[in-house]
Design goal:
Layout (H helix, E strand, L loop, with lengths): L10 E8 L5 H11 L20 H6 L7 E6 L2 E7 L7 H10 L2 E7 L6 H12 L4 E6 L8 H12 L3 E3 L1 E4 L7 E4 L4 E4 L8 E3 L6 H18 L1 H10 L4 H14 L3 E5 L8 H11 L9 E5 L2 E5 L8 E10 L2 E10 L1 E3 L3 E4 L4 E4 L2 E5 L4 E4 L1 E3 L3 E5 L9 E3 L6 E2 L13
Parallel strand pairs: 1-3, 1-4, 4-5, 5-11, 6-11
Antiparallel strand pairs: 2-3, 7-8, 8-9, 9-10, 12-13, 12-24, 14-15, 14-23, 15-22, 16-21, 17-18, 19-20, 19-22
The structure holds guanosine-5'-diphosphate.
Main location: cytoplasm
GO molecular function: GTP binding; GTPase activity; translation elongation factor activity
Organism: Streptomyces bungoensis
Length: 407
């Protein structure tokens, strides 16, 4: 059976990048909650967060081992690849960045850009990972979105495209004005779902001013936006959305959203932005590999020979699992795969989609997907697994070549 290529368009291989303590674990947790993957909210401090399923991680309260978790949002599948935020695990971050198609960079609204956010940002630049920024902790005393955006601009040098205006500040932070649709989103305590309404009268002028600034910034960067802006002196929400998507994917601009993950505010618009702006596996260039000194490119086509990159091996209570990104072709349960790095072939006994709280057994995984495999015993993080009849070694630097040109 040949998989329809258009189904790949709804996949988002997403990473969450942050300085330790900026709220990456809480954002991840709230995403899983908002997408219905988990029905209870884990809290970081009591060690119940579902992405950290290694006891060592729970004990230390930091995410040591990357794990991939799948969830669904608005007809899309989001494969959330956890990237360690701790500086000691730079190699793991690097490895995770290779298999991502896009990322959310989380910042603390009080601290702004911190040294580690800077180093992770630079790594993501090197890998050409398109990003959106989420300024978290808007509920904290001293939180200031504008100041955080200034620090992002000054220290990381992207063109920030702020698409929200906070409603209320610190303890009184209750929602945001969506500057693209010019609607307000207000959250009741503990509820992830926002109540949508018109822009509050008291914020109208400020919202109009910021919408104007957003339109001007986008028109300056995107020819289609410039044309519409010159014709009509304004941009429609549809044009703005399309241009923001293009600018995100080329790295020419970074969409900025805000919220309070702890209070569950801003997570749904963040998911909407992930789906709207970040690329699918079809939007990124074919992966490069070599066989007998000849370079090959493999597109994200389920009909091409199978090739996948192992980015994480996890030996836990569920046995040895190899997390892979499938770059091309399809893999069926029971298939034999080759590791051209070691020359070994091994059988895949199970293909698992890892959800926050359970594993789903699949018969098949296709290009673009991120799954965990049981069976292979010799794979290591960084190993290629491929069709024995069409060997290909994915270069160690396979994704190091920018998938987008980052200015
Ligand atoms: P990580 O180290 O980046 O994974 O950050 P965590 O998610 O573990 O969060 C670090 C600390 O910040 C924890 O004590 C969280 O409860 C807290 N935190 C996370 N998000 C928010 C937020 O939106 N507001 C406030 N006030 N605290 C938060």
């Amino acid at each position: 059976m040949r998989t329809n290529l258009s189904t790949l368009a709804v996949v988002r291989n997403l990473g969450i990048l942050a300085h330790v303590d900026a709220g990456k674990t809480t954002v991840t947790e709230r995403i899983l909650y908002a997408t219905g993957t988990t029905h209870k909210r884990g809290e970081v401090h009591d060690g119940t967060t579902v992405t950290d399923f290694d006891p060592q991680e729970r004990d230390r309260g930091i995410t040591i081992f990357a794990a991939a978790v799948s969830c669904a949002w608005d007809g899309h599948r989001i494969n959330l690849i956890d990237t360690p935020g701790h500086v000691d695990f730079a190699d793991e971050v690097e490895r995770s960045l290779r298999v991502l198609d896009g990322a959310v960079a989380v910042f603390d609204a009080v601290a702004g850009v911190e040294p580690q956010s800077e180093s992770v940002w630079r790594q993501a630049d090197r890998h050409g990972v398109p990003r959106i920024a989420f300024v978290n902790k808007l509920d904290r005393a001293g939180a200031d979105l504008d100041r955080a955006v200034d620090s992002i601009r000054e220290r990381l040098h992207p063109v920030p495209l702020v698409v929200q205006l906070p409603i209320g500040a610190e303890d009184g932070f209750t929602g945001v004005v969506d500057l693209v649709r010019m609607r307000s989103l207000v959250w009741a305590d503990g509820d992830a779902a926002a109540v949508e309404g018109p822009v509050p009268e008291s914020l109208r002028d400020e919202a109009l001013r910021r919408r104007r600034a957003l339109e001007e910034a986008v028109a300056e960067l995107h020819p289609a936006a410039l044309e519409e802006f010159c014709d009509r002196e304004t941009l429609s929400a549809a044009t703005l959305t399309a241009c923001l998507r293009d600018l995100t994917r080329t790295g020419d601009g970074v969409v900025v959203l805000c919220g309070s993950a702890y209070r569950n505010r801003g997570i749904e618009p963040l998911l909407d932005a992930v789906v709207a702006y970040l690329p699918s596996p079809l939007d990124v260039p074919a992966v490069r590999g070599v066989h007998q000194d000849t370079e090959q490119r493999r597109p994200a086509d389920p009909g091409a020979p199978f090739a996948a990159l192992a980015f994480k091996v996890h030996a836990g209570g569920t046995g040895r699992l190899t997390y892979v990104r499938v770059y091309s072709g399809a893999l069926e349960k029971g298939d034999t795969v080759a590791d051209p790095g070691t020359g070994r072939t091994e059988r895949v006994t199970r293909i698992l989609r890892v959800m926050a709280d359970r594993h789903i057994q699949l018969d098949r995984a296709v290009a673009g997907d991120i799954v965990a495999l049981a069976g292979p015993k010799a794979t290591r993080a960084g190993s290629t697994l491929c069709d024995p009849g069409a060997p290909l070694l994915l270069e160690p630097t396979a994704a190091a070549e920018p998938v987008v040109s980052v200015a």
